[in-house]
Input
Amino acid sequence: MWGVMNTKAFCAALLATTLLTTTVVNGAASAADTKSTAHPALWPAAKSQGLVDPQTEAFVDSLLAKLTLEEKVGQMIQGDIGSVKPEDLKTYPLGSILAGGSSPPLGAPDRSPIGPWVESVKAFRAAAAQREGGTRIPLMFGIDSVHGHGNAVGATLFPHNIGLGATRDPELIRKIGAATAQETAASGFDWAFGPTLTVPRDDRWGRTYEGYSEDPEIVRSYAGQMILGLQGAVSQGGVIQQGHVAASAKHFLGDGGTHNGKDQGDTQVSEAELIRLHAQGYVPAVNAGTMTIMASFNSWNGEKMHGNKSLLTDVLKGRMGFDGFVVGDWNGHGQVAGCTPKNCPQAANAGLDMYMAPDSWKDLFDNTVAQAKSGEIPMARIDDAVRRILRVKAKMGLFQQARPLEGKEALMASAEHRAIARQAVRESLVLLKNNGVLPVKASADILVAGSGADDIGQQAGGWTLSWQGTGNTKADFPNAQSIYSGLKETVEASGGTATLSVDGSFAKKPDVAIVVFGETPYAEGVGDIRTLEYQPGNKTDQALLKTLKAAGVPVVGVFLSGRPLWVNPEINASDAFVAAWLPGSEGGGIADVLIGDKAGKPRADFRGKLSFSWPKTAGQFTLNRGDKSYDPQFAYGYGLTYASKVRVGTLSEKPGFTIATENVSNYFVGGKTPAPFEFKLTPTTAVQVRPVDAGNVQEAGRQLTYSGDIAATAALAADKAFDLSFQTNAEIDLLIDYRVDAKPTAPVTLSIGAGKLDVTPVLEASPVGEWKSLKVSLKCFQAAGTDVTAVTAPFALSTAGKLVVTLQGVKLTTDPAGAVCPGKATK
Output
């Protein structure tokens, strides 16, 4: 067996290297300018560990000599399981397959246990082996295991990174990485798209919870440990295919620093700031041997990262000594100037080694082959990219047949893994306020209220069984425990009671109420917000807290969120207030800390300290330690314990910032047309709209009646155009809940702008009087001619015949299950 470096010695060397390079950077970076070209000499030095050795390089040399150009280009392209079929691999020699956040296994629901995932992986392997001629290169299967293996039903779900940052526990991070690797490998995948090393600087960003901290110190201390957990220590001549998976440090670089917190936006900072804040996690990640690094969607001072050669090649592969390969993000190469998802030589020439081309892979393959033949992409660049990919596959052990953990269902949510996750929940809780009510006696009669009390999906957040974490039910989490269940189990063991009442109602006055509430799940793009005020204009959770307080019940607020938010009114309405972040599958970890023994003595103390500053107003979007005007409600590092004597007084309930929230996804919901949308009828003599009951709710529907006298359109339109390009690229769908009351007598089109789709067969097949749902991908409209960058009416239904149809809801949805693409209308 090949030698492996002692882990403790490795970690000590890693820390020393990190501290050294940080000092050099802080002293040297001041000479940088604010343009988008990096100067490598200003950057910290690093070096990949264990990836390059004579045996591996000789093996790669032998393979490169055999591969055709088409086989080389195939290694550089990764398609998504939702777009690539196994039979495609008999023709196309792709190098990698990913399963995107909402992409299902083959022939199975998107919410599946590991069995269908393993079978899918085997099906792709078998098909690839049937390709005639050529050289066989094993596939590499990647998935977003960002807080455990969140795509598989039954997996252990760890707290999201924002919670882990509050633990200040690098050793715990390594254990989480190792457990995640085992469960990922058990389902057939050998590559985890993590860790996320972002440093979020604007809490409006919808991916804030993917970051460990607003400050690079925590990111720096965690990066190498998570890599070691996922991959193990990569050794000279050794392989990691013994319960480990390849890691992917992401997103390189500056994704957390975009202007106004806009996802995939522009990070407008100097080179010195880019180094000081956003690059620090990559030094220990490279030193720990991360096999891959993912390029970021964002720009740096106007230039997209997927096309920035000075950063991808000169800095990362040169100065920082990265010997693995750079993979793109979801069609991210298509955002480079002059590129489309199907055609982008600029990205390869900049240093991208593997394109993530989920649905554009086939055309991209053909175009890249042609560009390599013409010399537009030099063969030296092709060979370098393929060498890096083959090197990683060799070091992973993919050329060996053994998959020691594949299919081992007992690893999923094993007792050991759940114990690690529960420890992480305990350590991540941050006590913001405790005016004498905590800990709760285990013998007490407890009322457990709030929307998040018994909702595992809400406590797990985004990137859980679906991309946005939406659409989940309790049945989707067979190995998880809700917060209410954990509280109930704990207090009943000591003679107390825990009663669930989501709305806070009770027959007998409880000793205390624990109210669990907070943000509903979201992920990138969809999660971007414009104010940090929690529930602006509709403070239902504050009302619940105040109702219980008014009844004389002591109240403990447990707040679930993916970022710090302005919750002063909710804190004031609580006797104790706990930031629980997004704790994942082990709700019992909350009870471990909140519930004491029978006498009310603590069983476990609060350890969590804020890794993000908590705002004093709703407008403190960029509130970070070290800012010149730093004035938080609770400072970075704040966190009370049971020994603390701090008593939090009444906080100001003036938000200090108000703004109308921007709505581009809800067009008709609950009988209302949320601003800026309204029904527009053309001409009003041929189509009419009236309110009707729907879903057992009075006037929650709108019935559209087309007279058939002349062509007519009923649309949901805004007063100005808006951009749906992100939503289109992200595979988001238009969801219409409808009922046909009288079938069409002429063709009917559904359109967004110029893109018209024929929905006549859909309406004709719908039974009269029955509620149905139609889900259509925005990409279908784009393919039919819609300009998704300038949408005014995201729904328009047109016909020259008679038709009566009732709408119950029209909105965008991130759950792709059941989506169809009706045919393009004939002109």
